[in-house]
Amino acid sequence: MYSQQLKYVLVLLLINAALCQNIKEEKSFTTAIANMERLLRTEIQLIAELENFANELQTKLSIIRSGAAMMRRENLKSKSDPEKYLSNPLNAFSLMRRMQADWISWELFMSKSVGEANIKAVQQLRENVPDAKDLSEAISAIYRLQRTYDLKASEMAAGYLHGNQYEAKLSSLDCYTIGVGLFDREMYYDAGFWLYIALESYDQNDLFTAIEFNKVKILEMYAETMLKHNRPEDALLVLDKAIDLSPRSATLLSKKIDIKAKIRVDKSPPKVYSIKEPSDYERGCRGEYDDKMPQMYCTFNTTTTPFLRIAPLKMEIVQLDPYMVIYHDVISDKEIAILKHMAIPQLKRATVYSENSSKSVVVDRRTSQFAWFYDKTNDVTIRLNERITDMTGFNLVGSEMLQVMNYGLGGHYDTHYDFFNVSADTEIIRTTGNRIATVLFYLSDVEQGGATVFPNIETSVLPRKGMAVMWYNLNNRGDGNWLTLHAACPVIVGSKWVCNKWIRERNQLFTKPCARE
Predict the structure, then answer these.
(1) Is residue 513 part of a domain?
(2) I want to staple 448 with a disulfide (CB 3.0 to 4.6 A). Which of 87, 327, 338, 492 is the partner?
(3) What is the CA angle 468-473-477, rounded to 5?
């Protein structure tokens, strides 16, 4: 018996090693809210170092001002009668000493670097901040929210998200960064909106002065966007405003000449952009399935296992094809807290199995971080697996480990199937079979967004803390059920935590429910 269990454990280790092989570890700050919390702590340290640097500068400035005032008072004594002043040997000596010695010291004091320790500390802390790829992913997340939920750039910048007003807002620099990011991806239509908002909301401040961000930069970029829209006349008007602010810029004057030449030569009309109809997936994320949701029923599950006769589970039947049920209040707050505490130190970028390369890879269509836990890691994982058996009636030996996930900024998982669309002799399913069922626990409420949607059957499940949804991935013949196409909608506001279990089919010979085709 024990040798058989050991065999399954070894198989699981090999499977998960295959899933994770050749995956380069990366920070991916935007793919988990839990991971981004570290950035707030790092920012606190950076701000402290900046304040310390400012204090050192202030101390040096105070010394210089005080010294200058003292020397000026002495110098003013000679203003009315320099000869009389210098005729006193004490005044003459003091002047000679000041000019010969003090100014050497002042020169050294002025040239001495200030805040070297603070600068070094900032340099070390910057090793823990997002890189260019992280920022690019953050831009993608904002655009994903905008596209999926049909949000207006102006409303997003003002903190109005999908019908709710928030205190958080985007600065002119934030909007400019998004606009430039979309422009670099040749998404000129959307880039133009963000750059226009950056222009309208621009307000000069000390931060913008320090980082040399000004209105000229926005105008110049906005003019480039107008050119991509094939609107050179508008581009020229925008560029003229930039030239008014920076009349000596050779770059701007040169661009003006180029635009004028384009106006004379190119007579083609402006580009026209059509509005794309939302996909079934996007409609589901926007909550447009509600009027088509099947009216099933709720009950107490008392029959799946003998234990449920004394401790039934609240079950809501959602679909019959594919079979899908929701269990309410099926995991406690204490169990959730323990799972999250276990997962946070181990979170890493989620991957997707590639049929072409036969390995797991990082892809943009899945933005979250996960941690795996063996079934017998602790009392919580043991109880959770026993509960999954009570919920499904399936034998979990040979199934995959528990996976805890946290979604980040605009975190999502685009439409996909949980079953492997590969032949039966493929390594990933040869030993333990395909994924017959999925059990997905919701470990947190999500304020907005984050629904699990099934576009082919127009069904959506909103995340509720303590709830779990279970569905069959395979039909009665053991083939993948194409109706199970599903997706995790982008999280608008909130930190979405889930825990899932993929149950394999090989050990379900005597437990799999029999049903007619």
Answers:
(1) no
(2) 492
(3) 145
- Residue 449 phi/psi, 5-degree rounding, is 80, -170
Helices (H) and strands (E) in the chain, counts: 18, 19
Q: Give the Cα-Cα-Cα angle 410, 412, 418 (nearest 5 degrees).
A: 175
Task: Give me the CATH number covering residue 240.
Answer: 1.25.40.10
| Bridge partners for 164 per DSSP | 161
Q: Tens digit of pLDDT for each residue in 303-353?
A: 999 999 999 999 999 999 999 999 999 999 999 999 999 999 999 988 887
| Rounded alpha-carbon distances, angstroms, from residue 163 to 107, 159, 410, 493 | 61, 10, 17, 12
Summarize pLDDT for 240-249 with one digit per residue, the tens.
999 999 999 9
**117 and 214, same domain (yes or no):** no
Q: Among residues 128, 143, 161, which one ends one of the domains?
A: 128
Number of domains in the chain: 3
Q: What is the DSSP letter of 266?
A: -
Neighbours of 357 (CB within 10 A): 9
Composition of the chain by helix, strand, coil, percent to 5 = 50, 15, 35
Same domain, 308 and 235: no
